[in-house]
Write a structure and sequence with these properties.
Radius of gyration: 25 Å
Helix content: 40-55%
Shape: elongated
Bound molecules: 3-methyl-2-oxobutanoic acid, zinc ion
GO biological process, one term: L-leucine biosynthetic process
EC number: 2.3.3.13
Number of strands: 12
GO molecular function: 2-isopropylmalate synthase activity
Structural class: alpha/beta
Strand order of the largest sheet: 2-3-4-5-6-7-8-9
Keywords: Amino-acid biosynthesis, Branched-chain amino acid biosynthesis, Leucine biosynthesis, Manganese, Transferase
Pathway: Amino-acid biosynthesis; L-leucine biosynthesis; L-leucine from 3-methyl-2-oxobutanoate: step 1/4
Length: about 400
């Protein structure tokens, strides 16, 4: 895409504090939620789903406090398509400058029959009534047909039409169980935008789970299909395999801006600190190889790669660590590392060896690296000291 071409605004809807928190090991205290909410606001998320008001008194209190204290994003609460849920959600988000109620109701026959035990007609009526009720409290109402990607298309269109007619301003189409493939998910939006009356007056939104590892790919496919809100979580935390990772979507849009006709408000270089803040609050860190924020995301061990990166980082890095707030790349010294990376690290440690001494040190280094999985700074220092004593290095 040409840089001069018109770019639409893409809204980031963060659900770390709601869908993210709903996963094992991710429960957060009120103080932790509040501090994360401030971090998310500084990160530039447009909509912050602070919780599910009816879920517990604690959740209600967190949403209400975030709505009062956090300025910037729209503050949302989730609600089932039930009066009590919607009333509580409305009360929780009331202090917000820009409140949103997010109503959801299953649209797949599987969920209607086995979970809700209601017929399609009843679901349609509930969708309309609940969106209308939510609209009586706030102007900004999001509707999600849960399990949309396993729903009958005609029925899905009918439910979405009713929700729009009742006043929904955002239509979120959840891939609740991470079942969709990118093409299919994009086509689903194309179909809805074409067939549903009033579709041009609402914002369509993606909400992807990662059961097949496709959550980010599906979100990007949705953007290609005209979606202008993406729902996601920090570090991709969420039910089962998680939700689409905010940092991966934001990085992809930044690095491949040529592919997506959108702009967004994410302050990219705050990503790492928010990721770290979340990791310090929940019981696990992102996996080491996690894109963008994992400890290995900017680490290089192979000699060829280290040589390339030391000559020009662009050889093996598609974005700078600083662009996403990571302090720097890391040369990990191990058995795959080359002489140049070892020499570089030794220089950083204050040892500027002559070429022939480097040869000796490198032989000792490779022997050590074969025995140890990682060669740490102290190993290198010991190695040089030992050789200085015994071989006059
Ligand atoms: O995955 C899902 O369907 C959800 C909805 C409640 C939006 O999280
Ligand atoms: Zn979800």
């Amino acid at each position: 895409m040409e840089p001069t071409q018109q770019r639409d605004q893409l809204y980031f809807f963060d659900t770390t504090l709601r869908d993210g928190e709903q996963s094992p090991g991710c429960s957060m205290t009120f103080e932790e939620k509040l501090s994360l909410a401030h971090g998310l606001a500084e990160l530039g998320v447009d909509i912050l789903e602070a919780g599910f008001a009816v879920a517990s008194e604690g959740d209600f209190h967190s949403i209400a406090s975030i709505a009062k204290a956090v300025r910037g994003p729209v503050i949302a609460s989730l609600a089932r398509a039930r009066r009590q849920d919607i009333e509580l959600a409305a009360k929780a988000v009331e202090p917000a400058k820009r409140p949103r109620i997010h109503v959801f109701l299953a649209s797949s026959d599987l969920h209607l029959e086995y979970k809700l035990k209601i017929a399609r007609a009843e679901a349609i009526a509930q969708a309309g009534e609940s969106v209308r009720l939510a609209r009586s409290y706030v102007d900004d109402v999001e509707f999600s047909p849960e399990d949309a990607t396993r729903s009958d298309h005609d029925f899905l269109c009918q439910m979405v039409s009713v929700a729009i007619e009742a006043g929904a301003t955002t239509i979120n189409v959840p891939d609740t169980v991470g079942y969709a493939t990118p093409h299919e998910y994009g086509d689903l939006f194309r179909m809805l935008r074409k067939r549903v009356p009033g579709a041009e007056n609402v914002i369509f939104s993606s909400h992807c789970h990662d059961d097949l590892g496709l959550a980010v790919a599906n979100s990007l496919a949705a953007i290609e299909a005209g979606v202008r809100q993406v729902e996601c979580t920090i570090n991709g935390i969420g039910e089962r395999a998680g939700n689409a990772a905010l940092e991966e979507i934001a990085a992809a849009l930044h690095v491949r801006a040529d592919q997506y006709p959108v702009r967004n408000n994410i302050v990219l270089d705050r990503i790492y600190s928010v990721s770290q803040l979340l990791a310090s609050v929940i019981s696990f860190s992102p996996s080491p190889n996690k894109a963008v924020v994992g400890i290995n995301a900017f680490a290089h061990e192979a000699g060829i790669h280290q040589h390339g990166v030391l000559s020009n980082p662009l050889t093996y890095e598609i974005m700078t660590p600083a662009s996403v707030g990571v302090p720097g790349n890391r040369m990990v010294l191990g058995k795959h590392s080359g002489r140049r990376a070892m020499a570089h690290r030794l220089r950083e440690l204050g040892y500027d060896l002559a070429p022939e001494d480097l040869d000796i040190a490198y032989v000792a280094f490779t022997e050590l690296a074969d025995r140890k999985k990682v060669v740490y700074d102290q190993d290198l220092i010991n190695l040089v000291s030992h050789h200085r004593r015994h071989h006059d290095l």
